[in-house]
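sorry for the late reply, my laptop died twice this morning and i had to redo everyting from scratch. anyway the thing you sent over, i finally got around to it. pasting the sequence first so we're on the same page, its 64 residues, then the predicted structure underneath. double check i copied it right bc i was rushing
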Amino acid sequence: MVEFIIVMVFIIIFSIAVAFGTRGIKTTILNMKTMQEQQGELIIQQNGEIIELLHEISEQNKIK
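ok and here's the structure:
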């Protein structure tokens, strides 16, 4: 009887740990996706700035 209670307590603790673990994994994956999106937006913004700088350089070269 005591062994049965110990096993049941262990199963309950294990199931709670699994539930919290999967929730943690889901939030980690979501955080990674948002980070990738932010990095993509940053790269697009930097590319736009680089293109603007190249236009300015080419305009200055035309003036010379």
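The radius of gyration is 28 Å.
thats about all i looked at so far, will dig more tmrw
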